[in-house]
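Tokenised fold entry reproduced for everyone:
>
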Amino acid sequence: MRIMTYNIQYGKGRDGFYDIRRIAEAVAESDIVGLQEIEAFWERSGGIDQVDAIVEHLAGTGQQFFSTFGATIDIHRLVRTQEGERLQRRRFGNAILSRWPILSARTFLFPTKLTPLNAHSIQRGVTEAVVDCPSGPLRIYTSHLSHLGEEERLQQARFVLDLHRNAAYNGPAAFGDHPDSSWLEDPLPPVPVDAVFMGDFNTLPHSEVHAALTGAHHPHYGSLLDPERFVDAWLALGLSEDEGATLYGDWDSKSGTRIDYIMVSASLAGRLMAAEVKRDVDASDHQPLLVTLAEQSR
């Protein structure tokens, strides 16, 4: 099972041109994809729904993907045509794509955000999907944490941890008995124990945010597996930080910082097989990160 995270910068490549087909080609080798900075009906990116465009492009190559768009910004927009005005919601946020059905999906908005007078600040959140994988249902989270400061990122990381820890208690978006049987038209979606949290975290390895998500670190054992936290797949596989840059400071040397992560629940650590940064993809200002999980624990 191949899982990818990718901040796509709304389809704007290193050449300054917007081309969502390049994004579709970059994610085509994956089974589950978490995307950040994806949008719908913004003029800058061609006035299209980028999630639909990616899915349609992949369908044209014979690959079926299911999808959910987790908008954290949703703005009124009227489009004038020869037939008159037509409403389109201008949206921006996260998305999850999957080769397998997405049994349920929802987006949780972070409850607060910094609003400085001199810096760009947007509403952010975390998108959740329950994917019906061949090896069993899997909870997927993707998010883009704040670029403004570690304190705000720490609040957001703790918010996601609370979602993860309380998932079984909170249950799916709708469940339980109801006098109106129409609420029970379909089987209730499960709340799997196994979970993946991925995205652009805007923080460095071993930072306060990283430590909050992954827990204690031991000089001999490395990160200690905590059933209520996540495991950084890159570190768990013993890979070098020097090879893990996802945001380049220099394209020619492929050097920079590792701020994009795929983390798995401790219950999935035994299934980690491989991880790699797709170093030569130039469809965004970030590089895609791909992690492979075995179907069952090794």
Notes: The chain has a mean pLDDT of 94.
